[in-house]
Each structure stands twice: as C-alpha cells, then as structure tokens.
## 1
Amino acid sequence: MALPAEYSSEELFKAQLQLWHQALCFFKPVALSVVLDLRIPDAIHRLGGAATLPQIMAEAGINLCKLRDLRRIMRVLILSGIFSVKQVATTVASDGEGPIYKLTTASSLLVSDESLTSQQQLLRPFLYPQLMLTPCRECPVSRGLHAWFRQDQPQPAGLSPFALAYSGLTIWERAERDATTTFPFDDAMASDTAFLMPIVLKDCGEVFHGLTSLVDVAGGLGGAAATIKAAFPDMKCTVLDRPEVVAKAPTDNGVQYVVGDIFQSIPPANAVFLKWILHDWNDDECVKILKNCKKAIPPRDAGGKIIIIDMVVGSEPSDIKHLETQVLHDIIMMNLNGIERDEQEWKKIFFEAGFKDYKIIQLLGVRSIIELYP
C-alpha cells in the first residue's frame, strides 16, 4: 500500500515514533523486573546508595562480562526515573570506574531488608510493585534475560536471551518455523522497507546519486533494492543473501540476486547498502562485515562508500520519547545478541574496520543514514 500523500515525511515519522514507543513500553517493566531479579537496588543500598556499575555487579554477583549489557538495562530505568546517574560519560564508558549510579526515592522503595521479621516484611512497599510485575516477570523475555545475565560468558560465547527463552531457537530459526502463524518476521521486515524506502529516496536520494552499482547486503527478497532500481534505472542493483532466501526471490524487478555469506565476501560495487543489518551483530562481527564491505568498493575518490541505515542512539537528545524509543528498542536487540549504538560506538567499529570518515544524516525518525567512506 502506498503511503498517504497528504502526510509529510515528518508527520509519518512522528506517527511511527508514537506507535513504536507505545509498543516498546512493554520493555520498561521488563527492565525493572530484570534488575529486581538481579537485586540491583539491594546491591546499591549495601554500597551506601551510590556506586559504579562494576562495584554494583560485584556486590550482586554478576559477571563483569555483562557490564555493557547491564548498562543498557540501567539506561532505560534512568530515563524512567527509577535510578539516577551522577556522571554521564560523553564517550563509551570503559570497564573501569565510569559514572556513579544512585538510588532515587522510587528505587529506595524496592530495597529489601533481610533483618526484618516476616511480619514486618509484609509491610514493605516493595511487594505491590512485585505483584504488578508478575506478568512481565513470567514472560519468556524476562526469563531469558534473567538467565542470560547469570551466565558467566561474554556475549558471543553463549546462547542469546531469545534462544534461552525459546528452547535454544535463534530468532531466525523461529522466524522460519512460525512464519505463517505467530511470528511473521519476514513480513514485518518487508513492511518496514515498504514504509521507509520511498521516504529515503524522496528526502535523501542524493546519497545514491552518481552510483553505477550497489549491493544490498542481506537484502531479503529485494524490496529496498527494487525501490532504488526504480528510482535509478541505470544502476545495477544486486542483493546478497542466503540460499533459501534467494530461492524465493522475484525475477521481474530488475534486481540481481547472489547467494553468499557476509562474513566471507561481498560482490564488488560502487556502494554497499546495509539497511538495519549491523545492529543484529556484536562489535567484532560488525568489524568483520565492514572489512568485507571495504574490500568490495573502490576508493572514496572513485565514488566508493557504504550506506548504512540504523539507529544512532542519542541522535535527538532533547526529545525524550525519541531517546526512550531507541533505548527500549535496544532491549529487543539485547535479546538477539545485537546492539543499538550511539555515535561513539559506531565510530569505534568504523575505525577498527579501516574506514577513515563518516557522515550521519538524521532525517529518518529514530533511525539515521550513515555514509561511511574508505
């Protein structure tokens, strides 16, 4: 279905933000249930009401390999006012001291006191929020995250929270198994492409000007590539994806399809297009993908570049709903062992992959276009 012509791009992205924010608000109680299960308020209380995250994790018995991920959970609850942070780092916090996390009045009510008698325990204000959180505490997402935070393995080594919650299935395996019933993953991705790409070409089409060829990495059935091809008929557009995806690809949209593995190699082209791909992968995996992208394109002075569509967390720091939607979406990505990154986190993987410069275009609601140059 075509987008309503009477609405501007700004109006459409505001509407999308409203819907995403409403849907993602589910993850606020999920984040709260996780920190309660990990007894984070108790740990901060025992440390005098304020402490760094490594200190809190040591007190709560959580392995430091989960430091970055607990920081992401706490970011949601700081925006909600459950905790406060004394010092906000302007760059990616290291595994050292970092900012000081403090109890607020709200999180003080969540502190348990083991010295109380059983009768006194019944009078704690802690108990009613616990009752209201029961549906979230019992849902697979919360159970998976709780089990995952108790793993003594860094992110790439163990199962994702999603897999822990769904009998070892990855999201891709469940999407394939339940595509026509309860989990229409591919349809949702195609729908997002149909919404986003006409706006990209209308408002940011200059990023494709001058290109003679483009590879859409993990481009599925080619919705994005076909939209680009229709706008730039002389451009050679290729989709790289898995064999089972390419086998279902259409043959009448002017797009070529190539079977391949993004961790092995990418077909040569003027530009490589990565729409909502890199947030699925951890930093080391992103560096591998980007190094392969760099090999596939010519130098910058010959027009070579990478075009990324993804979130840049904090891109609109004055818009609380915008920022909250981004960090709540990051909890989804945590469930898949993925990451929504801020600019400093993006910069780190770009430079590790050997790129020299980048430009962020913030015109796509909670997402941005990043032009990355060799």
Note: Residues 30 and 136 are 6 Å apart (CA to CA).
## 2
Amino acid sequence: MNTKVKGYFLGAIAAATYGTNPLFALPLYKDGMDPDSVLFFRYLFAIPILGMMIKGRGRSFKIEHKAAVPLIVMGLLVAFSSLALFQSYNYMEVGIASTLLFVYPIMVALIMALVFKEKLTLQTVFCILLALSGIGLLYKSGDGTTLSLTGVLLVMASALSYAIYIIGVNQSTLKNVATLPLTFYILLFGVSLFFVRVGFGKDLYIVAKWYLWGNLIALAVFPTAISFLCTTSAVQYIGSTPTAILGALEPVTAVFFGVAVFGETLTPRIGCGILLIILAVTIIIAGSNITSHLIRFRKLFPRLPLKRKGKMNG
C-alpha cells in the first residue's frame, strides 16, 4: 500500500468511526441510561485515554496560567454543543440531524468573514446558498412529517457553538497549545457540566449489566482515540485538505446507520439534500483557508444519537 492510498484509507477510517456511536449507544438507551450519564462516562473514560496518549508521545501536561480561563470556557462550549445535539435527536432522524450539523465549516467561514473581516468570496456565498438549498430539501423527514423547528434550532445551535469553539481556540492564547493537551483539558472542564446535570453524581445512572460497561468504553475508544490517531496520520500522509474533505463520510456514515439500524427512510429528495450540503461543505474546505483550523480541532468526541420519542419503545 503506497503512502497516498494509506493516507486516504486512514482518513476514511477516521471519519467513519464517528458513525459507530449508535451501535454502542443504543443498548445503553434501551437499558434506561439517560444522555447526561452517557456523556459523563464517555468524557470521563476518554480523559485517561488522552492522558496516556500525551505521555506516550512525550508531551507535557503543563499549560500557562493565562490559558486556564479560556480552556474552561471552551470546555463548557463543547459540552453545550454535545447537549444541544443530543436534544435535537429527540425531534428528527439521526441521519438528517448529523447532516445538518455538518454545516459547521460554512459557519466558520461566515464568522471569519463577518467578525474577523476575512474576504467573503463569491465561492463562499455560493456554498451558503447551496447548503441552504440542501437544508430546504430536508424540510420533511422520510416518513413525510415536517422537520421540527425546535430540532433544527437545536442542531444549528450545536453547529454554531462548535464553530465558535474552533475559531476561539485559534484566535486566543490557546492557539499555541498542542492539540493533545488542549483536548485533554477541554474534556476535563467539559465533563463538569455533565457532573452538575447529574446532580453531582446523585442522579447518575449506573448500568447494572456488566457487558454494557464495554459499550461505554467503546464509545471513548473508537470515535475518540482511534479516530484521532487516524486523523493525525492521514494529515501526515496526504495533507490537511484531503483529510478534511474525507470528513464528508461522517454524515454519510450516520445516514447509513440511521437507515440500517434505526429503520429511517432515505428518499431521493432527502438524498439530494444531503448531497448538496456535503458538496457545499467540501467546496468550502477545498477552496478556503479554514482547513487547518478544522483539522487541528476536529470533533474528537462526536455526540451520541438519541432515539426519537416516537421510537423510544420501538
């Protein structure tokens, strides 16, 4: 296997592993575990994994004192993004919500233009219109019901908060912090939000079946450690732009599991909407200067899908 093929393969694995979330999360939800408890354990288990990766690469845990407050803010911002997306899955299908979340690179480009005065190119405007057209085609789910406005607003809030996080860590004192230590502290401070939401441990759901602990560990290992290692390796082999473009496999994988596992319907209209959004984001990534931002602070800890209320007992 030559270097380029290996790079593309690793990039595809990095993106596709995000789609393993429902496979491990579904048994936990069936057992009655609530989203806050799942996210608490996921972050908690991921922290030592990142710690071992830091030690294994010979990096330091030390950070400057002035970076502490920005780290706390960014950690809470990422945690809020997780919660917002969790709630959105109560109102729409997993595949559609995951595709809508994928517009965050466009939000990054738009914020950079409006706030930091980067030139807003015709290409960016075209991609925004393309993405809006795709979203318009998703206005109805596979079963014919109109998308919930609440669900759309929640997933957009999740995408926006993540876009702000990406920009924030690149425009603050955190831009000089190495990716591994940065992610370690983001999770460390982010888990505090879930700890508060589970009543400081009082309302934390503890799984009774021993094998379900394997699901919790898998959620921390596959979409986190494995995806992170594959992403960084792919960047070394093929560069940041092709690796970022391969991120389009994230919503594709989510749609696949939505159809295959959750029984969601993929109509030609929904398929076209998904393709338009993926195309718009791919063009943005390939033709702008935000690629390095997206790669360095990629979603290492994607959010877990919830079964929609109408299907919770299905």
Note: The chain is about 70% helix and 0% strand.
## 3
Amino acid sequence: MTQLSDSNQAWLLASRPDGEPAKENFRLVEQPIPSIKKGEMLLRTAYLSLDPYMRGRMDDTKSYAPPAQLDQPMVGGTVSQVVESQHPDFKNGDWVLAGSGWQRYAVSDGTGVAKIGDLPHPSWALGILGMPGFTAYMGLMDIGQPKAGETLVVAAATGPVGATAGQLGKLKGCHVVGVAGGEEKCRYAIEKLGFSACIDHHREDFAEQLANACPDGIDIYFENVGGKVFDAVFPLLNTAARVPVCGLVSTYNSGKTLPAGPDRTPQILSGILKRRIRLQGFIIFQDYGDRYPEFLQAMTPLVEQQKIHYREHMIDGLENAPQAFFDMLKGKNFGKTVVKVSE
C-alpha cells in the first residue's frame, strides 16, 4: 500500500458568508485518516479543483445542488488515487475523478467516482477534459449552435470555460471576441487562443470598444460573468441571437439583498421578445450528464493535436486553498485554478 501521511488535513466550512467570503468562513483541521470497510476505498487527493460554483454552495439557499454542510469538508472535485481498496471495481493505484472536497483523504463507496486512466496530465481531468471543458462544449454546441461567419462574444475569455468556448467557436468559423480583465489576458486571448479581438472590461470605454469589435452585432454570447459585461453586450445582440448562461460570477458575492438601481426587467424582456433572443441557463451534469462520452470523444483529439490550448493556474499546497478561491472569484487567476494537494 502507498505510504500515507500521518493525518488527514481538511478545510471545513465553518460559517456561511453574507457577501464576499473570508478566511473565517473556513477552518483548517487535522483529523485521523479514515478507515474503510468492505465495499469502500480510501482516496488520496492529488489535485483539487476550485470553481466559481462553490460560492453558491456556501449559501443555505435552494439551488440545483444541496448546500455545503457546516463543519464538513468544503465541496469540490478532485483527481485522487486509490491507496486502499475493498471495492470490487477499484484497485490500489487507480487514478480517479471524484468529489472528495477540500481534504487530503476521503472514503468512497464508488458513487460518482470514475477512472481516468493514464493521462499525461491528470489534473486536466478537472479542466479541459473535465467539467469546465464539458460546460464550454455543450453550452456552445447545443445552445449556441455556432455557424461560420457569425460573431461570438465570450466573457471571462481566458478562464477554462471561456477559453475553450472561444477556441471551439474559431474552429467553427466564427468571428470570436473575448472579454477579459487586463491587457495581459487580452494579449493571451489573441496571440495564443486565436481570438479576433479581446476587450479589457476594466477600460472606461469598454462598451464602445466592444461595439467596435462587433460591427455586425453579436450572434452568440457565452455568459460567464453578468453585470456590466452583459449590459454592454445586450444592445448588440442580433435577431435570433443565442445566449448560453453558465455563470454570473460578478454577482456571486452580492449577498442576499437585491442590488440597488432601476428595474430593467421590462426592457430586457422586451428586447428578448422583439429580437427573438434565446437566453438559456444550463447546469452541465444535470442537463448533459449522459453526453459526457460524446464530449470526450470530440475534445480529446483536439487537445492532443493542440488545436485547443489550455492553461492552468496551479497553487501548491492545500493550506493555500481559501486564498486561491478568493482570488479566483475576483478574477486574479489566469487559467483554470487547481490546488496541488499531494504528489
């Protein structure tokens, strides 16, 4: 059996934030490594995925998934290795995709666990070949339905979802315009990802710059952000435009009260009606879970042939997970945020 550490380090959800999360919402503990019984296996976390959806799971509100539980390890997807098994379908040494959360070790009965085989980059199962890549693929292909010559605008363009959606749009012949925070990210979107343009949303003339980059209007807007980016996009949406909505990260820390300001709902609904805009939210595994093999079959060769580029923002050490999470919510990451928990 693989040598184990002396204890199981874990970040527990200590309290629920009202607005922006903080370090005091988490508590780091050292616990005994759990034992297993027949039908179970012990998983050691190698990589932990940090994703925007986790902010919503910290709230005790009705949603598409149950809230994270207080005084339990914070939820999260992991790439883990089986270090001890009494499960008939898994053996010691297997690499798996699991939901072990923010901890070094976890016991599993196999529910929701999938073998990932011999990947050259195991952590990529949390990104380009995992949930973010799957989200980009299905959101763009099924809801966005890109066609050659159309204009696609992608928010959070250098994140794992946005970067993938934009590159897929380029392969489909779209004029792709990214939106990102900062000149460095915009240069990357153009020079590495092949976008036609990328607009820095920090610019005072952001809305004007976006309009100039989309002279024929916008046919598809891949929504990851909301807020002022959506405000600039909406007037530019063409008749029969499609808007896959997979995230609204600009609002995740807004708290429980409605934002101040005028009610623009009638104006937005009127635009949706008059221009026959298709605006559709989706939850990737609830809506498309049975199509994951289809995604892997399509995406794997694109990644292997480097037709799709991918960037990770790797953080070393589980102790740094909360700060990395806060930074990601503020857009300070560059690429898919992954925490390296163990070798």
Note: Residues 232 and 339 are 34 Å apart (CA to CA).
## 4
Amino acid sequence: MIVDIENVSWKREKQWILKDISWQIRQGEHWSLVGLNGSGKTTLLNMINGYIWPTKGSISVLDQTFGRCDLRELRKDIGWVSSSLQQHLHGEETAKHIVISGKFATIGLYDQVSTDIEEQAEQLLTLLNCQIFKDRRYDTLSQGERQRILIARALMAEPKLLILDEPCTGLDIIAREQLLQIIEKVSKAPQAPTLIYVTHHVEEILPCFSHTLMLKKGEVYQLGPTEKVLTSTLLTDFFDTPIKVYQQQERLWLTLA
C-alpha cells in the first residue's frame, strides 16, 4: 500500500478543513486529485508528507504508519513538485546543478559530486528533454522549462511516491501539453514512482492516471477508476454547473452543457 488514509479529519481553530477522508493508493496505481481552490487539496498533501497531523484518523504512507516512524526518513522517499519551490531556488545556478541538488535535498550545491550522480542527472535531463538547456541559468528558463527541471530534481532522490502539485499552473497551452507529454513519459519509465497529480483542470488528466479522487469542501465527493468518476452527471454536481464530458485522444474535455 502506497498511501492508506483512514477516516482522517483535520480541524484548524474551530473549523473542519478535512472531514472523514479515506483514501487508499495501491502499488501500480497513478492517481489524479481534483478539487477547486479551497477544497483542501494542499492540506491533504501536507498531511501525506507529515507536515500536518490529523485531528482524527490514521495515516500510513509507503507502509510507514504515522506515529510509529521517522517522518524525516519517510520524506526522503516522497518527491513533491510545486511551483512554490521555485522562489527558494538560486536562480543563478545552472539547470543541471538544480537537478543534482535534489539528490541531497538541499537548496544549492556545496560539495563535489561523484561521476555516478553526474550520470544520473544527465539521464534524467535526457528523459525530460532538458539536455538542450542544462547549462543555462535557472532564472533564464521559461516556466515550462523550470517545471521540467523541478520534476528531474525530484526524481534524483529516486522517490517511491511523486506528488505533482498543479504543475501546469501559469503555462500556455503549448508548454502545458509539452509538460504533460513529459509526465506521461515519466509514468512509463522503468522503476517509475507512484504518481499523484493535483489539478482542478480535468483536461490535464492523462491516460496514465487510472484513478481519481474528487475533493469538495474538505470531503471526498467521489473516488475510483477515472472513467467512472469523471462523468457528466458527477461533474455537474461537483462543479454545481451543468457540464458535458467528451473524450478525445484518450483525454477528457469539458464543455458547459
């Protein structure tokens, strides 16, 4: 079991932010997590990483039960790609150095690295089509290029679970589709980590995401196989707006009904 969340709730001050969440992710599954702003997605991610402790319920990640494990060690097996990380990185560093720093979970490189680590970084840069700009300063890259570098950086630590937290935010349609192609490629790579893709745009959900959790106002609205969850009927109720879903090239797209 990659993630096992049982009847989890979280209360901040006098308000319940998450209520009775149960969610299991098994080996070999990739999930999308769908919810509008304020639905509790970020809170749930923080909980999976052990940064927030549940008010009620139990959590196990990678077969490590919270309260009985060293969360600092557990986090080494969890990659989390978020746009918020960009503001903490050193923009003058090269893209390749940013990727290598993921091996040490540091902001910046302070030690000489081995040939093996250099080769691992080169392989990831090639996998994610970043080799062309690997020697450029990070702060000269486009938003889409930076996101690819962040994914490569997360993969340097060889995580067993990789969380992609709204990675397409701020991208134009071309950059978005290029990044989604990269994510599909990562999902099919040998020894690929389990993926959780967080979004509120259904059209970003790739065929590799076999399962979907829909989170609404801090509660599980629906979860299960993607094709059974993301239907016109369920999405109409989920968004409180008449929605029609259609499929094109194995992707789901929405229109207002």
Note: The chain has a mean pLDDT of 91.
